[in-house]
Amino acid sequence: MIERIEIKGLFGSFDYDIRLPEEGEVMILTGPNGYGKTTILRIVAYLLEGDLLPIRSIPFKEMEIVYQLGKLILKYVQPEKELGGDIEFHSISDGDLDMSFHILTGGEDKIINFGRVGEERIRRAKRKSHINEWDDLYFHEGNYYNATSNSVKETEEKIREKDKKILEGMAQTAEQKTFLIQYNSSLQLCRLVPSQRLYNIGNNAHENTIESVSNDFSQFLRNLYFDFLRGSQSRDSNFIHTLLDGNESIEEKEYNLKVNELRDVVRKAQHYDLLDNLKLPAYKEGKGTILNYYIEEATQKLKIYRKPIAELDLFSRLLDNKRMVNKRIEFSRRHGIRFRSTDRDLLIDINKLSSGEKNEIIMLHDFIFNLKEGSFLLVDEPEISLHVAWQHEFMDDLEEIAKQKRLRVVVATHSPQIIGDRWDNCYDLKEQTEDF
After folding, report:
1. What is the domain count for the chain?
2. Residue 347 belongs to some domain of the structure
3. Per-residue pLDDT tens digits for 384-414
4. Which residue has the higher pLDDT, 216 or 388?
5. Residue 108 lies in a domain
6. In what order do the strands lie in the sheet with 336-341?
7. In 307-346, at which residue ranges do the beta strands (DSSP E only) sit?
8. If you average pLDDT over residues 328-335, what whole number do you get?
9. 278 belongs to a structural domain
10. Is residue 317 part of a domain?
11. Range of the domain at 273
12. pLDDT per residue over 192-202, tens digit each?
């Protein structure tokens, strides 16, 4: 897990020492345009995804990435000028990236070298791995695309897969292979949301649309419901044997406590169309043994819903807090999500929602349901895509999501509305530069 990144000579000018957030925390990276906010986010993403090759396109002198048990050292080696000896940053075509991993041992660091990565070494690795330069990839409007797919995500994954094969192709010695093993052991799930992609619902190349989100909810709820039915059927098949073999009883007070704990789960499961009518029986004298096993079985069956219900509650609460005018959300296995007017109780065509409402729904759905717990989330300039009225609430939402899902979040922005009163959580690139 990356703890800190120190960058020297970014763009030939800037030195930064950035401590990254812990699990459940949100950090704000701020500063004027041109100070490297987006570049730093991309560096973190490359490191977390195991894609070191694109870092070669970023002009810097040296980078130190600190992990819990070691540090990765990247040095950008460029031919010197004949006069002055300064490093040129205008072209990287003839430069090499020297890479080494330093393992902390308590005494002297154990250094594992990968060596210099330059154009010739990359070409040899590509030939050995039978990788063409770009195959069927093409560049359009700031993104690489696959000729057989309009999916930005699939194309980015294809590029990362190629880069990893190239690195593996370079690793000829045992030390170089050990370097990759050590580096790959430090990787973490990561999501980078680029500027203007939070969320560009008008971009056909982007998978997120309001219809796809509704369909995802429908599939999500159906899968949960069928998993519950399968689990219930499996437990029911053994229930009579468990009952006949047991003799434990339950007292009325304890039974009522457990029923009250389950009642909230049952109510929410029914609200999200995850459970048909279920009425928990009242306590009856002389039936303590049967009721004991009944309540235990019900508890075990409904356990499958606790985590997804917590996520559905978070989604509903945050969306409701947006005060979508005269609208309330409904969930169902058949329709996914639908909206109904609160004044006339009429269904609203989901495509008739405003663009701001659609973006909010898509964003919350993505962060809450698509990001795995413990992931690293990087968001670049969210103010570009967010409705002005919701910008100041964005960080509140993100902090709550990060805390519940144990995310580590970095937001790059120079918007006062996004930052609010969170200056203590900011790393100001301009201030750091002025300090130097």
Report:
1. 1
2. yes
3. 877 777 787 889 999 999 999 999 999 999 8
4. 216
5. no
6. 327-332, 336-341, 347-348
7. 327-332, 336-341
8. 94
9. yes
10. yes
11. 205-354
12. 998 765 555 44
